[in-house]
Amino acid sequence: xxxxxxxxxxxxxxxxxxxxxxxxxxxxxxxxxxxxxxxxxxxxxxxxxxxxxxxxxxxxxxxxxxxxxxxxxxxxxxxxxxxxxxxxxxxxxxxxxxxxxxxxxxxxxxxxxxxxxxxxxxxxxxxxxxxxxxxxxxxxxxxxxxxxxxxxxxxxxxxxxxxxxxxxxxxxxxx
Length: 175
Fold this sequence. Notes:
With 175 residues, this protein is of the alpha+beta class.
């Protein structure tokens, strides 16, 4: 993608749907308004929030200091009274000396996306989101110490065939 400001190569790391009406539940304003990060933790939590809401997981890593591009447009996926959400695509700029290649065969559908209350009540059949299920090791600036502080432990599921890493927050269940 080229922007008004520069020509650059970008790698897509997430795609998500975002509610814009408070009457339907959580409105996550930061997805397209966050431009400056006060710290590594601020950046990491922004990316974690985006990836929890992403419909896909790619094999693209991201780290504090990367330039991020957000493309956002209106989208009407539900054909109902919840008729206007935002579809956003998130990419990071290719780093100097890095290949532009992305192995798209490693992209996975997120079957446990964080949504807003209207979706849970009207489409999700009572489903309620409670835990991330994406590989936070793709967030290179997120350390084991960060994970411990946040109550996560990185646990590879030996029998995992979907390529998504499971996490355990201490409650005895992998998510």
